[in-house]
Each structure stands twice: as structure tokens, then as C-alpha cells.
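Section 3.1: Structural characterization of target chains.
Under the original work plan, the team committed to producing a structural model for every single-chain target entering the pipeline before any wet-lab resources were allocated. The record below documents one such target. The sequence was received from the expression subgroup and is listed exactly as submitted; it comprises 161 residues.
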Amino acid sequence: MYQENRILIFAGFALIAMTMLFGFYYAVFDEHQTLVGMGVSMMNGFLEAARGDLTASYTALDQYGEIAAEYKREIHFHGHWGFLSLVLIIYGLVVHKLGFSRRSRVMVAAGLAVSAALFPLGVLMQAGSLLVLGNTLATLGSLGLILAMIALVVGVLRQPD
């Protein structure tokens, strides 16, 4: 097996393992508490509105919005890492056939693997005090994914007939 194949397949299985570990942790220690927090915040918002205290209502509904945004971010992180792990494994099976030199194939494989790890991690880190770092990692990861995907297309087009 070629080095570029190993890079992508190993990275794909590593991301699957990380996705499963995060999913287990999230389901056991965080998801249900987050959903309860969303429900309580929404309920308090409506109760305060019914009492006529719109300031408290808006505060509770803003809290709901913050918790819901965090929930979506964590679910997207989990799903993106899982999907990208499958993409890495699939490309890992065929990357050696691209119409590039071996060195170029290894660089494309490494770039794709690193980007597939950084993009969802950056999305997850966009909460709280890690916003700037999260935005940077998500941007760099998504740019790396785009460039690696373009390189893969070019490599397929350059294959000899």
C-alpha cells in the first residue's frame, strides 16, 4: 500500500474513533443536560412573558438561543467529523491512482487529512472564549478541504487513459 493511501485511511479511522468517543461523551454527559436547559429557558421565557415581565422573558429566550446555538454546533461537529472520516477512507482507496507524482499525492493526502480534522474542530471551538481560534481553524480547515478537493479533481483529470 502506498504512503498516501495509508495517510488517508489511517486519518479516516482516527477521525471515526474520535467521532465515536465524542459522541459517547456527548450523549452521556452533555446532550440531555443541554436539551433540558433549552426547554427550561424556553419555558421561563414564555412564563415571564405571560406574567408581563418582558425583560426577564427576553433574557430567558436569549439564553435559549445561546444554548440552542451551542447544541447545533456540537451536533454539526459530530456529523462533519463522521462524514469527513468516510471521505478520507474512500479517497484513501484510490488516491494512488491520481495523475500526480508520489510526493504530490502525499502532500494532497496530508492536506486533506489535516483539513478534515481542523474544520469541524474549529466549528466546535467557536463557542465562548475560543471564538477567534475556532474561526481561524474552521476557516483554514475549510480552505484546505476546498484546495484538496480541487487537487483531487485535477489529479483525476490528469490520469492517463
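The mean pLDDT is 93.
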